[in-house]
Design brief:
The chain has 18 helices and 14 strands. The protein is α/β, with parallel strands linked by helices. The strands form 3 sheets. A 6-stranded parallel β-sheet has the order 3-2-1-4-5-6, sandwiched between helices. Helix 5 runs parallel beside helix 6. The longest helix is centred in the middle third of the chain and has 32 residues.
């Protein structure tokens, strides 16, 4: 099948490369000349494990020419951004611009597949725009949200828990089945109404966000009463009704999905007079969580005498260069305001983070960060940090104080090595 992907961001690139690997004829389209030029030279604008290798083994066209490609496509996939607007709602300007451009070139029988995360009713509006601006009526707009975890996107695409497809034309099911035939079996494809599909994506991410805040608040209680959140998470995770996933405490959630999608769902609730009060408290709790991590650090430091602080990790999670709404973006300015000198290392996040974070010193390794530091703060759970030579790390530090906001080390072992070690929810 001939497939055009509009948008060469995270979702568009991963989807395009994986569909090409499944045997489809894929063209990826973007309006950024620099990005297209880079991709045509096999340079990936994002870090995602396995993506560059998969791209190099498949023939994919990258172009600025949207018209020609849409005219020759069986499926047009929309994968542009839907960032949070100032009001908290999803900004759909790029989505609707795509709809207008598609309307100029669409052919009869074309399937418009919406991968972007969009509020309920967006696909209805896309269909309306195309019908109003095109003479073509024989087309279908289908909701097909992605459920990709940054850092695991390739695996998630080819090994999905489910594929959600929202459509109004049952006769288009065969096209979707053909599209995914070499990726998943039919029984993994859930067909729903279009609006249901749109809501499933928001509801899924919001549910996961709630789990994260829940275990974080349980961790706070554990610290007060002397319990171990690791045991708590294991104990409740063994309940088959709950399961073990997303029960790891941390400094608060960030990234491109959870905060944005939770806010968008809250705004949808307001629009349709169905308040999402639980989710509203999740957003408040998450922001409070990020603010409180600096307070924890400052409790143990004499900021007049102990000014050298190291930070390991700025991305919102490991295996990505994404720093959107990462806890580091709140912690670092807070510490700078207290007059601390910050040395930072992240395996992949420097390029993006350095455009947003000023007045810090970037280092090339965790050991460089440790040299003469009064404290090290671990914000991201990179495997590289888990594999550190801890004795070497301790010997490089002026004061062996570590705040581990990802619980990557064992408290007893760290104390035996001579560290002042503080983690989350472990007594």
């Amino acid at each position: 099948m001939k497939l055009s992907v509009i948008g060469c961001g995270y979702v568009g690139l991963v989807s395009g490369v994986c569909f090409a690997d499944a045997g489809h004829d894929v063209t990826c389209i973007d309006n950024n000349p620099e990005k297209i030029n880079a991709l045509n030279n096999n340079k990936i604008p994002i870090y995602e494990p396995g993506l560059k290798e998969l791209l190099s083994k498949n023939s994919i066209k990258f172009t600025l020419n949207i018209g020609k490609e849409i005219e020759n496509s069986d499926i047009v996939l929309i994968a542009v951004g839907t960032p949070t607007s100032n009001s908290g709602e999803a900004d759909l300007s790029q989505i609707y611009q795509c709809a207008e451009e598609i309307s100029n070139f669409i052919n009869p029988g074309t399937l418009v597949l919406v991968k972007s995360t969009v509020p309920v009713g967006t696909c209805d509006e896309i269909e309306k725009i195309i019908k109003e601006k095109s003479t073509i009526s024989d087309f279908s707009v289908v909701s097909n949200p992605e459920f990709l975890r940054e850092g695991n996107a390739i695996h998630d695409f080819v090994n999905p828990d489910r594929i959600v497809v929202g459509l109004e034309d049952d006769d288009k099911k065969d096209i979707v089945l053909d599209l995914y035939s070499k990726i998943v079996s039919k029984d993994k494809i859930l067909f729903t109404a279009r609006r249901s599909s749109e809501l499933i994506k928001y509801a899924s991410n919001s549910m996961l966000a709630m789990r994260i805040i829940f275990i974080n608040e349980i961790a706070d209680l554990c610290e007060k009463i002397g319990a171990d959140v690791t045991d708590i998470a294991k104990g409740i995770g063994l309940d088959q009704r709950i399961g073990p996933h997303f029960l790891e405490p941390g400094p608060g959630f960030g990234g491109s999905c959870f905060p944005k999608d939770a806010r968008a769902l809250i705004e949808s609730g307001k629009k349709y007079d169905a308040p999402q009060s639980l989710l509203e408290s999740v957003i408040v709790g998450n922001e409070k969580r990020k603010r409180n991590i600096s307070k924890k650090v400052l409790e143990k430091l004499d900021t007049k005498l102990e000014k050298e602080v190291g930070i390991l990790g700025v991305t919102f999670k490991a295996e990505t260069d994404d720093i959107r709404e990462a806890p580091s973006l709140i912690l670092i300015p807070d510490l700078i305001k207290k007059g601390l000198n910050l040395s930072i290392y992240d395996p992949k996040g420097k390029s993006e983070a350095s455009t947003l974070i000023d007045n810090v010193t970037w280092k090339n390794s965790a050991y460089e960060v440790a040299e003469n530091s009064n404290c090290i703060i671990i914000l991201t759970e990179w495997q590289e940090f888990k594999d550190l030579d801890l004795e070497k790390l301790r010997n490089l530090m002026k004061r062996p104080l570590i705040y581990d906001f990802r619980n990557i080390f064992d408290p007893d072992s760290m104390k035996k090595l001579g560290f002042e070690y503080f983690s989350i929810g472990r007594g």
